[in-house]
Amino acid sequence: MKTSIIKLVSALLLVIPWSLQSQDGNLFLGTATGGTVTFGDSLTVAGAQAGPSLSTGRFNTLYGARSGFSLTNGLYHAFFGYATGFNLTSTSDNVFIGNEAGWGNVSGTDNVNLGSHAGRLSTASDNVFIGKSAAENTTTGQDNTVIGSEAGFNQTTGGDNVFLGRQAGYLSTTGSYNVFIGGRSDDSDPYASAAVSAGYANVTGIYNTFVGAGAGRDCS
Hints:
11-stranded parallel β-sheet; single chain; elongated; 220 residues; mainly beta
């Protein structure tokens, strides 16, 4: 029985498209993963076309098809999910988890994007985006903390904002130094629970703090 299992595993290894490199602590699993690494160590890359452009780099972990697709080098990146960090080329210290999280970032550092499409178009640094489509359209805005599904969804260039709650600061585009706490209630539902919509309509304002149901609702 043991011999049969060994033969079966050996046969599977012959047909599964994968590559394994243990030199310098590197592990590459999947079709066209890992590129042509000439100098690098502690690289873990798994998924079809994950990290196919890698040539150097250290301590990077890429899991998911096409994750880190454009990455050539860099340090301390952790990408988990389809096409995470797709356009990033180098830099360091980014964590992208979720379908296309951090997809558009090319040279940013020190970002944490968790959730499908979180920070998808962001090219900036020092942002924390957590939640499905959180700050999805942010481009160059930096030092933002956005937590909640679609929170800061339309934010593009504003910086130093804190948006907490579902769709908090949803319409904000270029405003900076704002604190919006509370999820947006459904305007069409008179029976919506809590009816919290702090800062929902704020577009370009700066230095605002909105906390509570309907706070700053008409402020722009």
